[in-house]
């Protein structure tokens, strides 16, 4: 169904400052009109969205689709369907696959598989260094030509400041951002959870907040030096937010993302050695969570990204220290974020902005995402019910990864329909 | 059972696993201690054996080297007439695809009723307990907990001092990486003792100053000569040589100068202070040999009490309380 008229919904489109009751008309896969009392054409399917929120489809700046190399955890097929269930119509796929996405051939593989098997738009991220080994630059120009939206060795920082400086200089010439995972490897080595009292209680090695903060500081200094666009992935610490805030005030070209789990959960989730809560960067303290929320509210943190990291049950059902890091986050992102809205900590409009206009702005033009409902845009739309209560049932996940600390929890706020290019690709049937 | 120790009121014992002492009530501690009293009577008999666990299989599954703890559990189980299976496993078996849960299921299929588990990774016994029909006894996991060591330490304090309330203990050494210290912190404070931790800052646990109820309130002191003043219990911990290699200490020599418990320092403790060590002792490193062999030392007594305490633990969780 490429032609749809969505009636009576509360349309929130932060990119254009729209927040009100409007109808949205989609014709042949594109947005054609937003207005009041629109009449359906002959071929329009009418959807009554009264009492619901209508927004641009969400854009995830940071997820792991695991293909190629770990298809038992996720594939582009399953991951994009998980995205659709979470309201995402575009996902940026991190390149820490096997092989890593470090040349044109591998980037083309992602794009081709996404086109033939994916349910939503997949935007590949290319490696900064070959094989993510942190030794030599990857084929950055070739990757840019293949359409990557930026470069990242996600999973680890580029260890050498000199090499990262060179990567930034090169990326600047390509007008693409460098997306950094911020963790000083030596300081974090062997760490399992946030360094602090919970780690002490559990007898686990900790990852100090300083491991993140010192790389954020280093990278900002290099971005300032090179003029490159720097995007900081999954910021998790109060100190990190403070450094970014200071850098932005000085005009450094830096943006940042935070995950739903770092905004809503704390390190206490790891008590009882719950490997579902083992994530990198680790869940931090309530004080860090408050700082991250402040960062969202004052614009220091630009976007919310899932860092969707699916693993099999087998991967996670083991000793805490042996379990891989990661939470399967695409399908619970909106519901968990709505808790912040219910508590009055973040406005709904700001949450939507962080999931739509902000990531689109970071990705930039030329990749087919606008994060807006502007007439002429592809009809990537999500319809939300902010009052719907639901229980996280991982058996219903489209993702192969059922690894979430939210399993069995009640959330309020659900994606009830996702439309991609005018096609309804997910409809909640509960 | 001898008349002197009967009757044991253990009907209220409902705990299936012994994973740590952090959630034990004072009443549960006392039940274990009183049961250990009874076991000591058994150990005083010419034939140190009772049929309490006859027909039950106790598996000692040790993923990490241990002499004392394993031997102690083995003797304890045999004294209770259990069938005992000793197994050593290595972390490499995990990389070969054999998971801990696989191993637990196999042991259950082989008839294990109680699995005593030593593991180099914190939390491993909790994973085992979640997947096990057998009772799990934590024989020491990573840096986390060593509940039976704490129980035998506490039992020894009780035996010597008659009470816990108001006693002041100083625990000296690598507290950050010590499962013995962690369990003793919980046990001692739960029973009314005051605890001071003393170590170089690099060997102290993180976050104690903002524990927020996650750990008991303890005092922290980096100067041993101050910490030991008037202490009723001085507990020293084994110093792993790798702590120097990993940069946590400038040198073993400096550690000895600043943190070794010796007779001179021991004189600053209470006149009737107990000197404890979980063993094995690095003589003349964390503990001067002369002090280890002195009158304050309870080291041998701890080992001896370990058998009785472990018999008590196995007995209580076996569900055979009426059969002693």
Largest interface: A-B, 21 and 28 residues
Report low-confidence residues of chain A grouped into runs of 5 or more.
none
What proportion of the residues of chain B form beta strands (DSSP E)? 5-15%
Rounded to an integer, what's the Rg of chain B over CA atoms?
A: 19 Å
Describe the main β-sheet of chain A briefly.
Answer: 8 strands, mixed
* Shape assignment of chain B: globular
β-sheet strand percentage of chain A: 15-25%
> Pairing-aware structural class of the strands and helices of chain B?
alpha/beta
In oligomeric terms, what are we looking at?
Answer: heterodimer
How are strands sequenced across the largest beta sheet of chain B? 7-6-5-8-9
Return the structural class of chain A. alpha/beta
Low-pLDDT windows of residues of chain B: 1-7
Arithmetic mean pLDDT of chain B: 92
Number of strands of chain A: 17
Furnish the topology, listing elements before pairings.
The complex is a heterodimer of chains A (430) and B (324).
Chain A lengths: L3 E10 L4 E10 L2 E6 L9 E4 L4 E4 L1 E6 L12 H10 L2 E6 L10 H14 L3 E4 L15 H7 L14 H14 L3 E3 L4 H4 L4 E2 L2 H6 L3 E2 L1 H18 L3 E3 L5 H12 L4 E5 L1 H5 L21 H12 L5 E2 L8 H4 L16 H10 L5 H8 L1 H7 L17 E11 L18 E11 L2 E5 L3
Parallel strand pairs in A: 1-4, 1-5, 6-7, 7-8, 9-12, 10-11, 12-13, 13-14
Antiparallel strand pairs in A: 1-2, 2-3, 5-15, 15-16, 16-17
Helix pairs in contact in A: 2-3, 4-7, 7-8, 8-10
Chain B lengths: L25 H18 L13 E6 L5 H12 L3 E6 L3 H4 L4 H10 L4 E6 L4 H7 L4 E7 L5 H15 L6 E5 L6 H12 L3 E5 L20 E3 L2 H4 L5 E4 L5 H4 L6 H8 L3 H4 L7 E3 L12 H4 L6 H19 L7
Parallel strand pairs in B: 1-2, 1-3, 3-4, 5-6, 5-8, 6-7, 8-9
Provide a concise account of the structure shown.
Chain A has 430 residues and is of the alpha/beta class.
């Amino acid at each position: 169904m490429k032609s749809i008229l969505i009636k009576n919904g509360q349309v929130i489109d932060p990119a254009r400052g729209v927040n009100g009751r409007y109808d949205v008309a989609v014709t042949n896969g594109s947005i054609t009109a937003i207005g009041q009392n629109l009449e359906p054409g002959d071929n329009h399917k009418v959807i009554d969205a009264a009492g619901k929120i209508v927004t641009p489809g969400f854009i995830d700046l940071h997820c792991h689709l695991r293909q190629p190399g770990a298809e038992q955890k996720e594939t582009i097929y399953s991951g994009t369907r998980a995205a659709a269930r979470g309201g995402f119509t575009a996902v940026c796929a991190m390149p820490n696959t096997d092989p890593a996405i470090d040349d044109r051939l591998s980037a083309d593989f992602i794009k081709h598989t996404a086109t033939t098997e994916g349910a939503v738009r997949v935007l590949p991220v290319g490696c900064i260094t070959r094989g993510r080994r942190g030794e030599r630059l990857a084929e950055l120009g070739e990757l840019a030509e293949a359409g990557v939206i930026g470069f990242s060795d996600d999973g680890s920082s580029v260890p050498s400041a000199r090499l990262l400086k060179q990567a930034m200089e090169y990326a600047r010439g390509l007008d693409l951002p460098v997306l950094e995972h911020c963790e000083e490897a030596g300081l974090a080595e062997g760490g399992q959870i946030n360094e602090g009292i919970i780690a002490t209680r559990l007898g686990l090695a900790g990852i100090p907040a300083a491991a993140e903060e010192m790389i954020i500081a280093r990278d900002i200094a290099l971005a300032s030096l090179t003029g490159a666009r720097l995007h900081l992935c999954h910021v998790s610490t109060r100190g990190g937010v403070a450094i970014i805030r200071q850098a932005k005030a000085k005009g450094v070209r830096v943006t940042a993302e935070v995950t739903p789990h770092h905004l809503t959960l704390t390190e206490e989730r790891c008590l009882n050695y719950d490997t579902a809560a083992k994530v990198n960067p680790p869940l931090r303290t309530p004080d860090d969570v408050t700082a991250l929320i402040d960062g969202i509210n004052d614009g220091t943190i630009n976007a919310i990204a899932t860092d969707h990291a699916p693993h099999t049950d087998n991967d996670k059902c083991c000793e805490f220290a042996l379990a891989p890091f990661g939470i399967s986050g695409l399908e619970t992102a909106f519901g968990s974020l709505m808790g912040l809205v219910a508590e009055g900590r973040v406005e709904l409009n700001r949450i939507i902005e962080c999931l739509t206009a902000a990531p689109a702005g970071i990705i930039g033009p030329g990749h087919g995402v606008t994060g807006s409902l502007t007439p002429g845009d592809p009809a990537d739309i999500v319809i939300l019910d902010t009052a719907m209560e639901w229980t996280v049932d991982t058996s219903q996940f489209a993702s192969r990864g059922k690894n979430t600390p939210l399993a069995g929890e009640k959330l309020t706020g659900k994606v009830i329909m996702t439309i991609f290019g005018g096609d309804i690709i997910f409809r909640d049937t509960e | 059972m001898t008349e002197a120790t009967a009757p044991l009121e253990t009907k209220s014992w409902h705990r299936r696993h012994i994973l740590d002492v952090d959630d034990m009530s004072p009443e549960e501690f006392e039940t274990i201690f009183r049961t250990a009293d009874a076991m000591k009577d058994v150990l005083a008999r010419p034939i140190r054996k009772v049929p309490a666990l006859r027909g039950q299989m106790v598996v000692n599954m040790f993923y990490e080297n241990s002499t004392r703890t394993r031997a102690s559990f083995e003797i304890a189980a045999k004294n209770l007439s259990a069938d005992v299976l000793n197994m050593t496993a290595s972390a490499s078996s995990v990389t070969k695809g054999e998971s801990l849960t696989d191993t637990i299921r196999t042991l259950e299929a082989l008839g294990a009723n109680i699995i005593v588990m030593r593991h180099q990774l914190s939390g491993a016994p909790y994973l085992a307990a979640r997947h096990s029909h057998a009772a799990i006894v934590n024989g020491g996991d990573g840096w986390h907990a060593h509940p039976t060591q704490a129980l035998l330490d506490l039992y020894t304090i009780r035996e010597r001092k008659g009470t816990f309330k108001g006693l002041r203990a100083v625990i000296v050494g690598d507290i950050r990486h010590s499962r013995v210290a962690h369990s003793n912190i919980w046990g001692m404070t739960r029973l009314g003792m005051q605890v001071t931790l003393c170590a170089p800052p690099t060997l102290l646990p993180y976050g104690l100053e903002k524990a927020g109820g996650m750990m008991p309130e303890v005092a922290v002191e980096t100067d041993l000569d101050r910490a030991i003043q008037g202490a009723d219990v001085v507990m020293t911990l084994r110093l792993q040589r790798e702590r120097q290699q990993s940069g946590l200490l400038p040198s073993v020599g400096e550690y000895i100068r600043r943190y070794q418990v010796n007779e001179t320092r021991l004189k600053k403790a209470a006149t009737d202070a107990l000197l404890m060590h979980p063993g094995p002792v690095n003589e003349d490193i964390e503990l001067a040999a002369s002090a280890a062999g002195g009158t304050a030392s309870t080291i041998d007594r701890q080992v001896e009490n370990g058998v009785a305490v472990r018999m008590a633990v196995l007995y209580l969780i076996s569900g055979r309380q009426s059969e002693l």
